[in-house]
């Protein structure tokens, strides 16, 4: 199974409709390649980071790097 298929399946399991899941998977791959080049990180590290963001966003969590300054944390 290729990367696009696996990511599409994952996005679908997170609640995206089939067409949306494929679009999300394509964007994840594209952004992984961009960030990996910009940051000098491996694709695996970058993909793991983006997948964590995806799962956190899906569950309603705001990652620390996206909180405004001095915003209260969870709890």
Indicate the low-confidence ranges by residue numbers. Answer: none
SS-based class: mainly alpha
Helicity, in percent? 55-70%
What characteristic shape results from the CA principal axes? flat
Description:
This protein has 75 residues and is mainly alpha-helical. The chain has one domain (3-61). The chain has helices at residues 3-13, 18-39, 43-58. α1 (3-13) crosses α2 and α2 crosses α3. The longest helix has 22 residues, at 18-39. The protein is flat.
Defining key terms:
single chain; 75 residues; mainly alpha; 0% strand; flat
Summarize the entry for a quick read.
The chain is mainly α and 75 residues long. It has 3 helices and no strands.
What is the fold's blueprint, element by element?
Layout: H1 3-13, H2 18-39, H3 43-58
């Amino acid at each position: 199974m290729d990367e696009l298929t696996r990511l599409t399946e994952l996005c679908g399991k997170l609640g995206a409709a089939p067409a949306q899941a494929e679009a999300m998977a394509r964007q994840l791959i594209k952004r992984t390649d961009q960030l990996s080049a910009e940051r000098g990180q491996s694709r695996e590290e970058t993909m793991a980071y983006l997948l964590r963001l995806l799962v956190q966003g899906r569950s309603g969590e705001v990652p620390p790097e996206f909180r405004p300054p001095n915003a209260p944390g969870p709890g």
